Automatic annotation (TrEMBL):
It comes from Pseudogulbenkiania subflava DSM 22618. SUPFAM superfamilies: Metallo-dependent phosphatases. GO terms for biological process: lipid A biosynthetic process. InterPro entries: Calcineurin-like_PHP, Metallo-depent_PP-like, Metallophosphoesterase_sf. Pfam families: Metallophos. The chain crosses the membrane at residues 37-56, 68-100, 112-131. This is Calcineurin-like phosphoesterase domain-containing protein.
Amino acid sequence: MRPSRFIVVASSLLLLLHAYIGVRLLPDLPLGTVGRGLGVLALVLSCVLMPLGLMARGIERQPLADRLAWAGLLLMGVFSSLLVLTLLRDIVLGIAALALPAAELPPLVRDSALAVPLLAGLVSLVGLVNARRRARVVEVEVPLAGLPPALDGFTIAQISDIHVGPTIKRGYLEAIVTAVNGLEADMVAVTGDLVDGSVEQLAPHTAPLSRLTARHGAYFVTGNHEYYSGAAAWVEELRRLGLRVLENEHVVLCHGEAELVVAGVTDYGAHHFDPAQRSDPHAALEGAPEAAGARILLAHQPRSAPAAAAAGFDLQLSGHTHGGQFWPWNLFVRLQQPYTAGLHRLDALWVYTSRGTGYWGPPKRFGAPSEITLVRLVAAREASR
């Protein structure tokens, strides 16, 4: 679909969905003429500002660009909840019309119309607080069969999907870096979607990454949003900041008397931007020592797991899904990805999917809290093999 046609279709759909909310709610709200007029105005502003919020990073003037982004993205979060709750209300009213006497319907119609915007506002407010506070630390133990004693207890601090951009700036990232350093992990893994914008726009805001410290250093793999933002330039910038970027390659870490292979692949869809960047777990492991105590893959998207399992990895660390970020979209992640969040097993491979350390789009997290993950490798007992 041509870009101009896509914009027309998307704008028309957005207008229709706003009209649906207005038609289904405003007549049933006890607002009066002025109140309904303000309701229509609010829906019109939402319809206009939402696309502007998504496109604001293309505006050079500051702080206008960031203010438009904040307004549009906040409204996107409210609109999402309004739409879902309006649809659910219509389903409930349809069932009630079949099950209740006609005389009992008017109060339900009025009260449910009031409940929808109130609930949407409350969910959006709670979601905003959850999104803007520093991600909590989640500790995860991964039992690996045959893990050498020297690697038993090896820790990895994983951060993912921060999305530094219009609403996430330097201060937000500084708090994350400070928390990660406080964990004193053996290594740090940054599993993609760090940025939403160019190096020129965001370099001052990603600078805190240079403070990441760990015994074996910090490693990065690209996510799909790096390719939207100029992946080659970001790879160069992150290397300048001291991160080791793994592009279908691996490093061997000597930890005590054991060796640990840490590999990384480009994003699952990287080949759509550059055929030479196709994600390849097999290539990432090529030449790795057979006697390594464990093989870990950093791969932005969970759907790299089948190839990782076939290549012989023991653990894959991923992100991308945000855990769905906020209800009900977490219910639909499985349509694209095999795992939404948490630790799962695929044959002999463990896959941990982070809910993300920041957020994308609406500053809203509801039912899918952000996380800084502390992964600890532990020796599996015989019975769990």
